[in-house]
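Sample 3 of the quickstart, ligand iron/sulfur cluster:
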Amino acid sequence: MAEKLTITIDGVEVQAQPGQTILDAADGAGIYIPRLCAHPDLKPIGSCRVCTVIVDGRPQAACVKPVADGMTIENNTPELLEHRRNLIDMMFVEGNHFCMFCEKSGNCELQALAYRFGISAPQYPFQFPAKDVDASHPDVMLDHNRCIMCARCVRASQELDGKNVFQSIGRGFERKIGVNGERDLADTDMDVKDRAADICPVGCIIKKRVGFEIPVGERKYDHKPIGSEIEEGEYV
Amino acid sequence: MGDAMKIEQICKSFNNDRTRLMDIVRTIQETFGYVPPEHYELIAREANTHRVEVESVVSFYSFLSDRKQGGVVLRLCNDIIDRFKGADAVAEAFEKELGISMGETTPDGLFTLEWTACIGMSDQAPAALANDTVLTHLTPEKVPGILEALRKNPDPQALVAECGDGGNADPLVKAMVQNNICERGEVLLADNDPEAGLRKAMEKTPEEVIADMKESGLRGRGGAGFLAGLKWEFTRNAKGDGKYILCNADEGEPGTFKDRVLLTERADLMIEGMTVAAYCIGAETGIVYLRAEYAYLRALLEEVLNRRRAAGLLGNSICGRDGFNFDIRIQMGAGAYVCGEESSLISSCEGTRGDPGDRPPFPAIAGYKVAPTAVNNVETYCCAARVMDKGPVWFENIGTEHSSGTKMLSICGDCERPGIYELPFGVTVAELLEKVGAENAAAVQIGGPSGQMLDRSQYGRAISFEDLPTGGSIMVFGRQRDLLEVVDAFMEFFVDESCGYCVPCRVGNVLLRNRLERIRNGKGIPEDLAYLEKLGISTRRMSRCGLGQTSPNPILSTLENFRPIYNALVREDRSGLAKSFDVLRAVEPACELTGRRSVIFHA
Ligand SMILES: Cc1cc2nc3c(=O)[nH]c(=O)nc-3n(C[C@H](O)[C@H](O)[C@H](O)COP(=O)(O)O)c2cc1C
Ligand code: SF4
Ligand code: SF4
Ligand code: SF4
Ligand code: FES
Ligand code: FES
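Result:
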């Protein structure tokens, strides 16, 4: 086993292991770096940019950037808080998010992040794009109105399920998650037991017939803000 | 032969290799006029991939289509340079004559009409592509004749009555394109001794060649200005077999057309430079990534490669040296600016969509097919061959302290002599303006949309890595121009070209453009300027690749250098209503339903 490295996050010295990402090292030290597209079971891809930190003066996505000995990292600075807030706002206005009608509410990582950042309404104008809902599959729904293009589903299907149900199609603002079938999700080999079915951070991929199983008020982020589990050292 | 069989054959001609998916779908597009979605499944099966991967690629590139296109696809450059030279009137003429709008195909299936980003003909605007054929200096008056000719003979190549100069007149090119070489520098456009650089390099050890390259101070001509010798050293020292040499001929930055002229006039020099790189890195395979817009140069380049193979300059035992084997293939692009970014370029060569990759690892460590790969610009390879011939000291003595050599500048816009100027680094903007005949320019855009817009007070600044870096694009704007129209067009370009992978670039650019348009429509308030600034900085700081990191520059650099233009457009709002809210439009449906106008809110 190689030696431990030392990095500094907002002035705090943190021990890290070679090959770790900044995000992993921070998690291990009980320092929360906000994130959306990263997931502990998936290869990081750095698409949401919410985890951006300043490494030796340069912005880097903490979820993909490997640690190096002596790195000086800024995380909780007013500059970064503002940029991250702006990114969260962007994700709200690029889709159609009506939390009060959304089954994911309370369990949604985007919503929870917004609460953590004290956002009650986005500062940018809503774009109200026309997006589809794919309800073709017997057990799983795909509501593109809420997709943040984090590609967790793409990765989970490939890396955890050994399938290839999802992939990004199109580009720019028109980019969306496509499915590996003639027309819609029903044409794929998607199964409700796939990891891809419950890895979506938002309410885009939703399982049918289990709506509101956990009542509002008792959901994941109803009591403590997102990130608390890391800050309290309960994160594995 | 049935469609399915044709597709199977096409896939087979690329060895059913999924990494050649780009070529497969490009060939299918050429054969059928589109990539039929009903055959995605078949293509996927034949190319050993998944249906959605095929859709992913086809939907990424703007020259690929999932709808049947016309026999002749007319792509008009929509860059601001062309618009200022009358592209809109040309487009209107096409629309009127064809009876369709931009983006549509005629019912008889003969023509498709589209806008496209800069096609690298900015000094002969308005310009367009008719399939692979370049049309320059268009006017509305020429449109009926062009269409009549195409109706009689659907081969656009027949439209070329008179060829341009130099290589443009080569039987393999036959293009109406002009080189417009206005100044030849001593490095690239002066006469050179063919193969002298390669010969001299082979008299040295690879390490010595790298040392020479480093000493020359040659920095990359296409992007960040990284030392070419250092990049080659990293690639040489990286562990791994089967290293690659990639040449970036994507030239996508609007207003850049210098690689087009080098490809036309100096293809041998470029390949010579790649061969030198292969020699010192130990690579056996090279790829030239040629943008789709330059497909008309492909036959010429293939011919150069063939000639060099026959002369023992490519292939096995180059120049008779046992064990020195190197060959090159051409990879065609398909219309995506971001594919000029080196990691996107690699993805594209591997047959996938052109989303950029993460760094590290850098291509020098893990590039094409995860092997160590050197990616350099066309001009960089040309310079490298010359450095080997004339020596590092000769090269180092040209230019400025941190920018050795000459730079190929492509100048366009409101000037008397647009075209190619090869000049030593250190030339000032004022000197350039004098050369091109534009002393009265109101603004100069250096480095294309991703660069910066200068006002008159900055014309004393110098083209160089330390002051004003540019891949070559220089656009001149006269006093008659609305500079915010320029900014708007540039933002539109980034909105169109963002790959959409990361949030700040995918969304930020759309929000920036929308707010700018609101200001241009006279509906802006002073707070909008701070909004643009903050949003622009977030987009710049948080974006994943160079595209998003530079896309707010048109707005940010004009807010800095041309603030009075913005100030004159925004007005304090006293109505108490949010500016983004158009109350008249909001009450419209209610008025329609009730059949009367609103008592309070009406025009
Ligand atoms: C969005 C984007 C587009 C780019 N387009 C080009 C291009 O068209 N041609 C080019 O040579 N480099 C382009 N680059 C720079 C390349 O990433 C890379 O730095 C360059 O090819 C390296 O070669 P050089 O060191 O010889 O300049 C682009 C970079 C970005 C971020
Ligand atoms: S996905 Fe999340 S943010 Fe979007 S509507 Fe549902 S709860 Fe709200
Ligand atoms: S569907 Fe969900 S998991 Fe997939 S990209 Fe969209 S938000 Fe991410
Ligand atoms: S910055 Fe833009 S082009 Fe680059 S990865 Fe992000 S979305 Fe794609
Ligand atoms: S969590 Fe790192 S970019 Fe999304
Ligand atoms: S060809 Fe139109 S701007 Fe380059």
